[in-house]
Amino acid sequence: MAVNNRYDVIIIGAGPAGMFAANELSGHGLKILVIDKGRDVEKRHCPMESVQHCMHCTPCNIMCGVGGAGTFSDGTLNLRPDIGGDLLEFTHDQKRAWELVDYVDNIFLQCGATKKMISPKEEDVEQLQRRAASVGAKFIDTKQRHIGTDNAPAVIGKFKKKLDESEVDFLLNTDVKDLWIENNVCKGVFLNNGRTIECSYTLLAPGRIGGKWVNEIVDKHSISARYAGVDIGIRVEVPGIIMDPVTKINRDPKFHIQTRKYDDFVRTFCTNEHGFVVREEYEGFIATNGHSMHDTVSENTNFAFLVHIELTKPIENTIKYARSVAKLATTIGGGKPVLQRMGDLRRGRRSTEARLVRNPVVNTLKDVTPGDISMAMPHRIVMDIIEGLETLDRIIPGVACDSTLLYAPEVKFYSMRIQIDANMQSSIRNLFAAGDGAGLSRDIVNASATGVLAARGILEISTR
């Protein structure tokens, strides 16, 4: 496909935010180009599936490409405007926020997402909320739709075909080097191959993998932004039978805990029922995540357990802090995730190959280094994790037993939160922002919704 030198709209990033923005803009007579550093969805294959260790692909097929990182996540759609962000902040109307969630959900359904809605019974929700409240925690009732890691590529492929048929152009395997900004107006993009493409409007939607690049762009062009909080923690793996009573009620249960010692906010995130722990490759460090299939299951269930970190003066750069923690964990693990038994962490000793061989819970991620998480993460975070898991154990018995497996690091950090107006336009005229990479969302549904809002903002301004 020949790519033109000028477009009406250039979208940087082919993840949920970028694809939903392109979908919203199509049909309005606009020439649209989506640029992504990764591959098309059918060409995104991770070698770890066969060789069991990371091949350090550039770019990473798990994190980059059409569909974004969500394509190879659990594929769970959390159908609430206040999970993975807060759409009310952008809509200023609760009804509009919920309508936006439904709008996003319907598009996923059109592209082949399962029609099965995971909606807990009222009495089951009340039971979990009561158990959580009894130990000072909170259970968040969430309607969900589980696409599955194995089915998500097909859904994304159908979505991509829909955009192709709407004459949206895609430029893949291509890095955007910089934005073309003159007199506080964005006029296009500079590519790493030396090419310049002009446009009337640009949307920044590069996903989490583009967070560092967004920060550099923000600093270089003095785009109004602020540091957002980060989430640092671990990936927890337990026998599926431990979590089954809860995941049968809610496939991806959300528990919020405020720790007693430090008064820090800890939460569960991205539960993979009978799933697999996987690794993610970032520039300079590795992290963990989880996958859950429809057709392939393990004996274990895994979930992220994250401590929310906010920094104030004199150090506010949460991204640099989170990266430093992740890099230290990567160093301790010799370039692999650190794996430790809960019992060993409690007793202040490292896990060893011998202890893991004897452990009743068998780790689903094999490319790991047995070690000591307390050597890799700050004391406060480790204490929050131990206390938080012991609180969660009172809600879900067995979660914090000695044989529970803990993988580090699990880091959810976002770029600087770009300041936007009612149309999702930044302080640079004709430059809009959406999704995780712009610090405006933290999950698939919210990222998609911010893409829709940004597209509507562009349409609003372009028709004035």
Automatic annotation (TrEMBL):
InterPro entries the record matches: FAD-binding_protein (IPR028348), FAD-depend_C (IPR049516), FAD/NAD-bd_sf (IPR036188), FAD/NAD-binding_dom (IPR023753)
Pfam families according to UniProt: FAD-depend_C, Pyr_redox_2
Domain FAD/NAD(P)-binding: 7-50
Domain FAD-dependent protein C-terminal: 262-411
Domain of life: Archaea
GO MF: oxidoreductase activity
Protein name: FAD-dependent oxidoreductase
